[in-house]
ATP-binding cassette domain-containing protein
Amino acid sequence: MSPADASAERHGAAVAIRGLTKTFKSTIALHPIELSIPKGEILVLLGPSGCGKTTLLRLIAGLEIPDGPDMVRFDDEDVSAVPIERRNVGLVFQSYALFPNMSVAENVGYGLKVRGMPGQARQAETLRLMQLVGIAELADRRISQISGGQRQRVALARALAIKPRILLLDEPLAALDAVLREYLRVEIGALLRRFGITAVYVTHDQAEAMAIGDRIAVMQAGRIAQIDTPQEIYRRPANAFVANFIGTMNRIEAPVANGVMTAGSGETRLSLALGGPDRAATVWFRPEAIRLSHGDGAISARVVATTFFGATQRLVAALDPGHRLQVDLPADRPFMPGERVAFDLDASDILEFPNQA
Ligand SMILES: Nc1ncnc2c1ncn2[C@@H]1O[C@H](COP(=O)(O)OP(=O)(O)OP(=O)(O)O)[C@@H](O)[C@H]1O
């Protein structure tokens, strides 16, 4: 059991998934999945297309039935065969699924009406929810008269209205433009935390995952490749797949002899003290881990190009034709293509995943 899972057990798991598999005819969409989601956690499912994110979310929702019994538990109750309408889950999708012929307030209050909440109490609760997500002034508008970002807030308020045990969000911001996405992901994260709600959030956007998740489960081909906090996943990816998928990584493949990895030759070369036996090794390091040094460094390379990002710049430098490095540096130093630069790296910033390339 991982430390995160142990913590989930201690604080009471809202959702416990044990040996969960899902097979569609001949496609194994999920291999046995183990997962505990503590109460109040926002868990992000992140991964490339087809890795099983949506299938896992739908199984938690009750929109799909798992291969066997006792694979999905809510608050220690087996819900594997319980249909969605009896699970008390809230759903928010990319496509909003709002009622176009109803007003914003009617959409938000819909679930409360269906549950038989009397008119006055319902109106008060609807107003409270609309205020919370910042759409109270739009109460009487039709859905067709509000923007995409406002629609997503209506969808969120409607899902929260029924006080779900767990809120499930599937790419809720995918239809919005980049600026609005960036704004709303921070807002939604803050809002969910204020509610203290347990949430599972599917995205293939790593920046969104980092911004929203208490933990991120990185999925690969129907399995969870790593589950941990955004910081841990970024700093200590569990394997080459996660390293490749999260953020930008430099990857150097070269032989190690007498504990030193060497690549390139002459004026542009790399020489990293890795220790260990002689081997063909692959090492990984982040662009921001590389420091510019004076004179000779562990890495000497030639500048190929620079991209200006405002506060920082990303420099592409070549060791040899097969090895290019990306380096993030403050923007105040100008570099010329063809210029030779020397870099250093801390040993603790160099990652190696033995037994996998
Ligand atoms: N109803 C279905 N019938 C058959 N195969 C399915 C069905 N639903 C999903 N699959 C398969 O299961 C695998 C996982 O699909 P899933 O939709 O969960 O992936 P995803 O990670 O959500 O992808 P995306 O980001 O593209 O939505 C895929 O190989 C997919 O083709």
About this structure: Residues 94 and 172 are 4 Å apart (CA to CA).
